[in-house]
Structure formats: structure tokens, C-alpha cells
Amino acid sequence: MELSVLELSKRLGVTPITIxxxxxxxxxxxxxxxxxxxxxxxxxENWASKRNISLDFSENKNLSSPEKEHPLLSxxxxxGGVYYxxxxxxxxxxxxxxxxxxxxxxxxxxxxxxxxxxxxEAALSTGIGKGIAIPHPREQLHYLxxxxxxxxxLDHPVDYNAxxxxxxxxxxxxxCPDLKLHLHLLSALSFCLKDFQFIQFxxxxxxxxxxxxxxxxxxxxxxx
Amino acid sequence: MSKxxxxxxxxxxxxxxxxxxxxxxxxxSIAGMCSGLAAxxxxxxxxxxxxxxxxFRQYGWAFVLPAVGAVLSSFYLEKIAREGAGHGVPEVIxxxxxxxxxxxxxxxxxxxxxxxxxxxxxxxxxPEAPVVMSGSAIGSNLAKFLGLNDRQRITLVGCGTAGAIxxxxxxxxxxxxxxxxxxxxxxxxxxxIPIAIAAVAGTQxxxxxxxxxxxxxxxxxxxxxxxxxPSICLAGVTALISIVFTKTLRQTKKIAQKTSLSFxxxxxxxxxxxxxxxxxxxxxxxxxxxxxxxxxxxxFSMGVFVIFVAVFAKIFATAITLGWGGSGGIFxxxxxxxxxxxxxxxxxxxxxxxxxxxAKEGAYxxxxxxxxISGVMxxxxxGIFLIVEITGGYETILPLILVSSISSxxxxxxxxxxxxFKELIERGQFLRPGTDERIxxxxxxxxxxxxxxxxxxxxxxxxxxxxxxxxxxQNFFPVIEDDTGVYKGVIQISAIRKYVLDPGVYDMIFLxxxxxxxxxxxxxxxGLQEVLDMMENNNMDTIPVVEHERFVGMISKNRILDLYRxxxxxxxxxx
Lengths: 224, 575
What we know:
By secondary structure, chain A is α/β, with parallel strands linked by helices. Chain A has helices spanning 5-12, 16-25, 41-50, 73-80, 91-101, 110-123, 179-193, 196-203, 208-221, and strands spanning 2-4, 38-40, 82-86, 127-129, 132-133, 148-158, 168-175.
């Protein structure tokens, strides 16, 4: 296999100007000179191993690792499901009752999830104001395969120790197998919740299909 | 009184502290004389013991003599001196490149005694490497005694080496060249003068003590153009033989290391084997200087075929002696093998072309020696100058240079590392001055690490972190556990940039949710090379250093480049 100056410069992570200087100084094993320099792969490997230089010839090497595909907010809500008329008079009761209804959480892990959420609430309330709370655990949940958001509309508003002291009527549970996804979903959700019309829309306790449609519409405007 | 002292101190300071050249020349010549003495002592005692043992060699049981010597020698090294066997040259080179030439005092005599026992009893090895070890240890300890620094100590190690080689061969330039080419590896103005003077001092000591017993007499040879083509062919042969010799030495040593015998039974076995070969081929025994002498002067009488067998017998005997517990070097065996090949080649040519007019067989013995020395040590200058000085004239220089360059090039092509360097390269200890490996080995992580980073609790709310961010100039924020201080992860500004600009998440998350936990970390035990590889393979510019689960600091490529450059300037500047 033969390489050109440009290909070799990419492999070594230097500019072609550097390669040309090395050629001029006689530091590179060149196989044919003239108008176009070509390099023999075997000679180069030999040369690199003697000089303790890493030279990767594998073709499918990704020089820059691609950005991980982030899950969409709407898809996470679709997977998590929307639940209505959750009973309860305080934070713990609404959490407990919500978790009991979630179908994505395996039965064995429901108590564990409740403990985690309760601990998180004890550290700092997840009520972000305007009647909305985003309960989430601080740790990753290994038993989930993909990130989900479960939406619980409460039967009647509950005092959630929110920052603005407003009573909470809807909970967005962010449950993720990975903390990085968590951050992304949280950020995307907080973008939607900045929209005043969206809050008004939520107050009407919309059907699941409508809610997801609305969010899809909103996230198209979000560039994050 | 105090005035005199003051005056003395001023003179002393001016002469020795401001400019150490005079000091190095004086101490260097002392080192050269001492190592010359050591070399002469070993040579004389070897000769006497060889003569003393000579009458016993006619008995059948004489083959156990080398075994006794080898057992005593390995017992001495293992139990009394507690130093490893082997010739010691790689150790000296490594010590020069890594520890500023620091050598133990006992090295200055332990190898001498061990090799005296090995070679005196008939083991096939050379006294040069032990003498080199001894000379360099003398130089090193003189420097230690005078409280000199590493650079001066290295020069004195070179002086000791040069004195030893010069004294044993009566060849001052060969001593200088060997010392600089093989041991120090750098031609520096400040080194060369003291080493040259030490080499001359060593030669003078050996002249003064044994004026008539110089190893090789100066014999002039008439070399014509007819000899050029044969000497080129001879160079090819010597290159091949040098590779066979080097490989045999290494293989035998490997086999010995795999064998699960105690050190003295190995030595016994090896010694007996050498003794048995010696009964049929006395030429393999000892260091063989008088055989070389007789070959150069043309009084060596052996048949073509016998010489051919003797070459391999000597290779095998040397490999067994050195691999199985004996102590000594390969210099003298290389010379003997070289001269045997030279003579064989000469006789072979005369056998095929009886009428051809070429130089005497002594000249070919010299060509062969140069070929093997250049091939085995891959030190062409040492090969050329040693033989030129031995012959005492420049008549033979053309074929010598031809043989030397061809042989060293060919053997370098097949086996890129010379015998002395191969072990060091395999262990990653071949660190010549001014090379990348040397600088990376000298810089340790402690020097490169950037400390003073503020650490953050994993339970910190993101909003507080943003506040801290405003007044911080860090780009990396190590996150630790609250109570224990254990390192948990690191936050990089580049990774969280988009969340920093989103106030909606400020109160929602803690640092443990945002930190990067899978960032590779280095520890203080890692070498710089490893750390650089880690960074290279993972596309990182900065790497956190974590020691005993505690965050210590960060290492950045910027800092490495900065220090690397300074180190390079320090190490390569011409003094």
C-alpha cells in the first residue's frame, strides 16, 4: 500500500509542510520521489517502530469521536408514559403513588427508586416553580435500558417546598441509565418549561398524544 | 594563618570551582593511572597463574580446572561481593545515563577478582570488561570522594574506562575512542581532553611496570592493492561470524537462566564443558593473548580445517563460560575469533589461488580482529584505532577501514543493536544523552505536575459551582467526596459549556451528576512516556494525577513542552 504526502500527514497528525520538511532533511523513508512523493506502508511501519512513533493504518479509525446521539425529549416521554389523577397530600405520598403506577420500573426496584427520590428531595426540592417539579435520583439507574420521562398529573395540587412556594400540579420524573443523558434531558425540559404558553397548556392536563406533539413542536425550536 | 587559609581558598575556588577543566584533568589522570594499575595487576596475575597451572594441564583431570575457577568466581560474586555475574559494561553505560555514573566502590575490585578466577583457571573470557568496570568504578568513587557533580563524575568514569583499555592494550587512542564511543555516547569537548590524558596516563603506567610485556608488539606489514578485494570478502565473513557469536552468547545465557540449577552447579557444568573442549583445543582456554600474538607474528601452526573448527569452539566456549556463571568480557574472545578467521581466510585463499600475492597472514589476523570487534560492538572507530595502534603504523589503514565499516554496517543491518546495548534496549534502559528517551526518563511527574487546583464537593449544587466558576481561572475542576476527600471525577469547562448557559438546570443538579467519571488518570508512579502515550491515545491535552485516591494535580501538554524544551537545552548545550 502506498500513501501520499497528504495521507501521511493526516496519519501523523502534522501538516503536509512538516512532511515536506522532513523529506528535505532526509528523515522519512520515501519510496518514489519526483513530482509526487509516495510512501511505502511497510517502510513507514518499520521507521515508526524504530522511533517509537505511533502510526495507525487502520482505515476506519475515527480521528474525532462523533458526538453521541442524544435522545429526544418527546421520545423519552413516549417511553415513560403520562399518568393522571395521582392521589396524595404531601411530597412522599405523590412520589409513592406515582412510582406505583409506572410500568417502566420493574416491581423489585420501585422501593429503591422511592428511597432515592425521597433522599434527593430532602437534599434540595426539585420544585422549580410555576407548579412544576422534576423529581429525579442523583444516581444512575442501571436497570433501565434507555432514558425515560414519566409525567404525573396530580389529582390536586400539593405543597412541594418549591422556590416560589407555589403548589405543584405536575411531576416530570427523569429516570436515566446514564448521568450524561440525564443532564441533557433536564436541560431540554427546562427549555420547554421556560415557555409560558406551555405551562398554561400543561395546566389543562392534556392527553398524552397532545402533550408529546406539543413537545415535539417545542424541541424543534431548541438548538441544544 | 587565617590569611594564608583565605588566600588558599581563593586560589582553590578560582582553579577548581569556576572552571573545572583543570580539576577534571588532574583527577582524570589519577583515575587513569589507578585503572591502569588495576589493568596491569589483572594482566600480570593472569599470566602468572596461567604459567603456574601449565604443568597440570597434561593430566586428564585438568578439565575440572575451569569448573573450579567458575565455581569460585560465581561463589565470590553471589555470596561475598553480592553483585550480578556478566561483563558489567551495560551496567556502566546504564549508570552513566541514569545515575550520573554512580558506581559502588566494591565494583572496582569485585569483577577483577571474579574474572581472575574465571580466566586464570582457563575459562574462555576477556579481562577487558572487568577492567573497564573496575576503572569506571575507580573514576566514579574518586568523584564521590571529592564531592563532584554528576557531569564531572561521568567524565571521570570515562577517564577510568579509557585508562583501563589503554593500559591493557597499550593503545591510548583506542582507550579514548572506546570510552567516548561506547560508554559515554557523546563527543563533548569537556570530556575529551581529560579522557585523552587519562588514557595516556594509563598507558604510561603499564609501560613503566611491564615494559617488555606489552600485549601486542608493533609489527609493520606491507599491504598492497591486491588485498583490497580479499579484505572486503573477509568483512562479509566477519559480519556473519559476529552475528553468530552475539546470538550464541545470548541464547546460551537464556538457556542458563531457564535451567533451574543452583548457581554453583551451573558454573561447575559450564566449567567442565569448557575444560573438555580445552583438552582438544587448548586455543579456547583463557583470554588467549599469546595465541593472538603468535598469529600476528605468523608463528601460529594449525591446519585450515582445525582453525575453522577452533572458531566455533571458541564461540561456544565463550558463550558457556559467560552464560553459565563465569565472569569476564567478550573483547579478548572477539579478538581471538577475529584473528582465527583472518588466518583461516588467508590460508583458504592461498589454497585456492596458490600464486596470488597478498599480505602476510598476520595482517589478515588484524583485519579479522577489526571485523569482529566492529561487528560485535558496532563501534567502528574503536575497531580501527585499536588495530592501528596495535600494529603501530598506518600501512594497513585502508583495508582496516574497509573491513571495519563493512562489517559494522552489515551486522547493524541484521542486528540493529550491538552486544553491549542490546540488553539495555530490551530493558528500556538505553538512554543516550540528548535523546528523547533520556529526557523523558529524566523528567518525572513530580516536576511536571501543576498543583493549586481548587477541589469541589460532589454534593455542591450547580448554582454554587457557577458562582465559583465566575471567580476561577481553572479549566478543570476536580470533584471529591465530602467526608473522605476521595477523588470522584473531574469537570471540564468544555464539556459543560452548554449547561452553564442554561439557568433552568442550576438548582436541579449536583456536581456528581455533571462530572466526568471516566477520564483517565495518571499516578505519580507512571513514567512520563506512559502518561504521554495515555494522552496521545485518548486525545487528551490535560490529565489529572490521582495518588492513593487523592487528587494531586494536573499534567498538561503545555507544561510538558515547556519543561521538555528546557531539559533539552540543559542536556545538549555545549559546555
